Amino acid sequence: KNEVEQSPQNLTAQEGEFITINCSYSVGISALHWLQQHPGGGIVSLFMLSSGKKKHGRLIATINIQEKHSSLHITASHPRDSAVYICAVRRRGSNYKLTFGKGTLLTVNP
Amino acid sequence: SQTIHQWPATLVQPVGSPLSLECTVEGTSNPNLYWYRQAAGRGLQLLFYSVGIGQISSEVPQNLSASRPQDRQFILSSKKLLLSDSGFYLCAWSITSGRAREQFFGPGTRLTVL
User: Fold this and answer.
1) How far is CA A80 from the centre of its chain?
2) Option in A41, A48, A97 nearest B108 (CB)
3) Most buried in the list A92, B1, B36, B100, measured by CB within 10 Å?
4) Is A87 in CB contact (< 8 Å) with chain B?
5) pLDDT (tens digit per residue) in A25-64
6) Dist. CA B72–CA B104, nearest whole Å
7) Rounded distance, CA B64 to CA A93, Å?
C-alpha cells in the first residue's frame, strides 16, 4: 500500500461545479503539499499546510492531522483548472524528502 | 524573485548514449536542490538531493549520477542511458533555513530513450 493515496484518480466536471480531491496518508508528517501539474508538465506549488485550512482564490486546502487526511477544493471550476493535482507529504523528522501520491487528473469541460 | 531553469526541455537519445541535464536557480543563495523523475503512470520519485556544493545524496540505486559544481547549479548525468531512464525529469529547490520547506519546481525535461 502506498504511503500517500489520492482519490479519485480521474475526475471530469462541468464548468462551475464544486470539486473535491482527497488525499490520505499513513505516516506521521510535518507538512502536506498540494501541487498542480499542467499538461505541459510544469509543476506549481499550490499549498503547504500542517494544520487547519488555507485559501487562495478559488482553491481551498484542508487537513485533519488526527485522521491523516487532506482535501483540495476548487470552487466555481473552470476549464483552465484542468490539470493533474498531486498530494505530497513530508515525513516527521525529515527536512527535505517528500513522498508523492500518483495524482488526480481533473478535466473541466466548458 | 527566484526562478529555476532546466534544459533541454525535450531530449531523444539512443540507448547507450551519455546524458547531461542542467538545472540552475536564480535569486537565492545556498538552496537545497533536488532531482525527481516521473515515469509514465507513476508518481514523482526523488533521485538526488543536495544541501551544498559537492554534497550529493542518492535516494535510489540507478544508472544516473548528480553533481553540484556551483551553488546554484545542479547536473544530472549518465554515462550510458537505458530504456528505463525514459521519463520526465524535474529539478526543484527549497530554502535551507527556517521551518518552511516548500519546494519550487523547474519546467522539466522530457527524456525519451530509444
Assistant:
1) 16
2) A41
3) B36
4) no
5) 999 998 999 999 988 888 999 999 999 999 999 999 999 9
6) 14
7) 27
